[in-house]
Every structure is written in C-alpha cells, then in structure tokens.
C-alpha cells in the first residue's frame, strides 16, 4: 500500500452514478450534471448534494421537486457538456437535443434519452444550509428496458469516469435476513 491523497479518497466510495437533475421553475426547464447523489433508504429515499452557487440549487429550494435522470455511457460527452454551462442563460434540452417528457407527479420533465428517470419531491432540507444536502422521496420511477446501452457512468472527480461493466447474478447466494424483534 502507498499513501493516497485524502482529498481524492472519495472516488473509492463514490456513492452512485453521475446523474442529470431535471428541474422546472415558472415554465423554464433546466438540467444539471451531478455526481453527488446516493440512496438513503429503499423506501425510496435519495440524497443529492448541490452547491449553493448552482442555479439548480435555488430552483430545487423553491419548487421542492425534481427528476433524477440516469444517463448511460453513450451520453457521457453530453453529460459533461451539460455540466459546463449554466441553465441561467442556456436551454439545455434544446442545446443538447434532449427530449423533455412530462412526468406524472412533478413539473420537472423526464429525459427521454436516459435509461431511467425518478420523479422526486424534497422531504428534508435540514442539512441543505450546511452541506447542500437535499433529501428526496421518489414518487414514480420510469425505465427504458429497450435501450441497448445500459452502462452507467461514475465520476472520479477529476474529469475521468468509470463505466459500469456487466452484471453478475449471485441471487442464489444471498441470505434472506429476518428481524429478531
């Protein structure tokens, strides 16, 4: 073992795939690239960390709803480009030729080109001020099983990305735990 920079150690436990966070405010839709999201509970509860300087931060604070869209490796360059411009002055759906689809529960659109979309409402902002953490409850999930490309992307935080590989099925080895209470 060799010493590794502590400020880069997060890449070993990076919480989930790079996502697109879709929001809408006063009829204007926006997308941001986000690599700090995680599952908090299977119920489903998710967490997303946004910087107070992000345009989406203010929209999410006001509307308390969004769509978590999960892009795949074929969209990697688009995902990076979305993260390199601001929704304040850019219609990202138009600029990047993405299709906004109306959801069932929130005003923020789903992204048709993504593998999956999860409509969410913000349920806890108690750590938003200190950490930028928004806790969200999933309301409806959408999945495009016809998409040929299904590998998700994971940011290393330095402009490089890891790509998911093939799925390995070990369900027969999984223990089914029961509560002792």
Task: Please explain how this structure is put together.
With 181 residues, the chain is an alpha+beta fold. It has one domain: Electron Transport, Fmn-binding Protein, Chain A (Pnp Oxidase, Chain A, Roll), CATH 2.30.110.10. Helix content is 14%, strand content 33%. The strands form 3 sheets. It has a 7-stranded antiparallel sheet with strand order 2-1-5-8-9-4-3. A two-stranded antiparallel sheet has the order 6-7. Strand 6 and strand 7 (110-111) form a beta hairpin.
Briefly summarize what is shown.
This protein is an alpha+beta fold. It has helices at 55-63, 76-83, 92-95, 128-131; strands spanning 19-25, 28-34, 37-41, 45-49, 65-70, 100-101, 110-111, 116-124, 133-143, 153-155, 161-163. Strands 2-1-5-8-9-4-3 form a seven-stranded antiparallel beta sheet. It has a two-stranded antiparallel ribbon with strand order 6-7. Strands 10-11 form a two-stranded antiparallel sheet.
Spell out the key features of this protein.
181 residues, alpha+beta, 7-stranded antiparallel sheet, 4 helices, globular
Q: Determine the CATH topology.
A: Pnp Oxidase, Chain A
Low-confidence stretches: none
Distance from N terminus to C terminus (CA atoms, Å) equals 42 Å
The dominant shape is globular
Average residue-wise pLDDT: 93
Provide the structure class. alpha+beta
What is the CATH class? Answer: Mainly Beta
User: Which band does the percent of strand residues land in?
Assistant: 25-35%
Query: What strand order characterises the main sheet?
Result: 2-1-5-8-9-4-3
| Tally of individual helices | 4
Q: Considering DSSP H and I runs of 4 or more, what fraction of the residues is helical?
A: 10-25%
How many strand units? 11
Question: What Rg do the Cα atoms give?
Answer: 17 Å
* CATH homologous group name: Electron Transport, Fmn-binding Protein, Chain A
What is the total number of structural domains?
1
CATH 2nd-level architecture: Roll
Helix and strand run: EEEEHEHHEEEHEEE
Report the major sheet.
Answer: 7 strands, antiparallel
